[in-house]
Design brief:
- It is found in: Membrane.
- This protein has one domain.
- The chain has about 350 residues and is mainly alpha-helical.
- The chain has helices at about 5-35, 40-45, 65-70, 75-105, 120-140, 145-165, 180-220, 245-280, 285-310, 315-335.
């Protein structure tokens, strides 16, 4: 195939994977909408994450989606199961098409290269790794409830990437023509993907905490669950079907604990080594370098506070989101607000 044919294939694959991601989003929304007919007292008991126990009393963190659907009948159970399977299957297919888009982009260059030559390609790769990380962790941490958010996020990012960031295929700049590109970028995008998922869970934590606080204030004292006498559910809708606050907080910490050493390797080890190879200096006070270090400091503070002071809950979620804001500002914002960055290609 010619370079032009590979570039065309890449562009078509981007469009195709965008359609698949959108269909996966619709399937997940259908899955959750199917549970709207379940009585609230039962619907609030959807599985809440890895490690949910099984107890005779069936507390709010011990029910699976299948058990909840059972309470509403065979038709609902079938729709919920079908929506979940369809959403995951479409996400897997979309990730495959996404990978083809990256592969075609790299093979379209002369000579063939890794698909990390400009902001369009970096964004295409970053969104792919968000999906890949979600799929890898899906079964281990029972992240099916995160499907609508991940697919919606990736669809949005791809739209922005195609409409505003697209650039034709071109050879790598001299600074990028190094094997350190692969080492540095792979570690950076893996960390970015995990931090992004951690940001999603932090947002959900804050939303669910607020919803529970408001709902508890509206529930009369002594109101009980008509099924087993437990306290009446305080959260409705989608938030009732995500992990409880303890589960969300624990999952957020695990994602950040994984991502931080990977980000450290990318920012404080491979980045300076590559900078010295390309520009003869380990540190250049470039805006991208400075903001990458700021991101490292914020996440270091987050993990240090959690490890030493029991820093959990709402304050921890807010600090995690501050870290995510610095991360994405460094990734995209610097390109629009700085004219002096030597990393303007990324």
């Amino acid at each position: 195939m010619s370079n032009e044919a590979w570039e065309t294939l890449s562009n078509q694959a981007v469009g195709f994977c965008g359609i698949l991601y959108f269909l996966a989003l619709v399937a997940h929304l259908w899955q959750w909408a199917s549970l709207r007919k379940v009585p609230v007292a039962t619907a609030s008991r959807v599985a809440v994450g890895a490690g949910a126990g099984r107890s005779p009393r069936r507390t709010a963190d011990a029910w699976t989606e299948a058990e909840v659907a059972d309470a509403a009948g065979e038709d609902t159970r079938r729709r919920v199961a079908m929506g979940e399977r369809l959403g995951i299957m479409l996400t897997v297919l979309a990730a495959g098409a996404h990978f083809v888009a990256l592969l075609g982009r790299g093979l379209a260059a002369e000579p063939a290269r890794v698909p990390w030559g400009n902001m369009y390609e970096f964004t295409l790769s970053g969104s792919f790794f968000v999906t890949l990380t979600y799929l890898v962790l899906l079964k281990k941490f029972r992240l099916g409830w995160l499907g609508p958010i991940v697919t919606g996020f990736v669809v949005t990012v791809l739209m922005v990437d195609v409409i505003w960031l697209y650039q034709p295929v071109a050879p790598l700049t001299e600074a990028l023509n190094s094997y350190w590109l692969v080492i540095h970028v792979v570690s950076a995008v893996i960390a970015t993907a995990a931090f992004t998922l951690g940001g999603f869970t932090s947002i959900l934590f804050l939303l669910k905490e607020r919803a529970e606080r408001k709902a508890k204030a509206a529930v009369p004292a002594g109101d009980v669950d008509p099924v087993d006498g437990a306290e009446a559910p305080v959260v409705r809708g989608y938030l009732a079907r995500v992990p409880d606050l303890v589960g969300l907080d624990r999952l957020t910490y695990r994602l950040h604990a994984f991502a931080f050493p990977v980000w450290t390797f990318a920012v404080l080890i491979t980045g300076p080594i590559w900078a010295h190879e390309a520009w003869s200096r380990y540190w250049n006070w470039d805006p991208k370098e400075v903001w990458a270090f700021i991101t490292w400091v914020v996440y270091a503070a987050y993990l240090h506070a959690r490890a030493t002071a029991g820093f959990k809950g709402r304050n921890a979620a807010i600090l995690a989101l501050i870290g995510l804001a610095t991360l994405w500002f460094n990734f995209i914002g610097i390109n629009f607000f700085s004219t002096s960055s030597m990393h303007s290609y990324a």
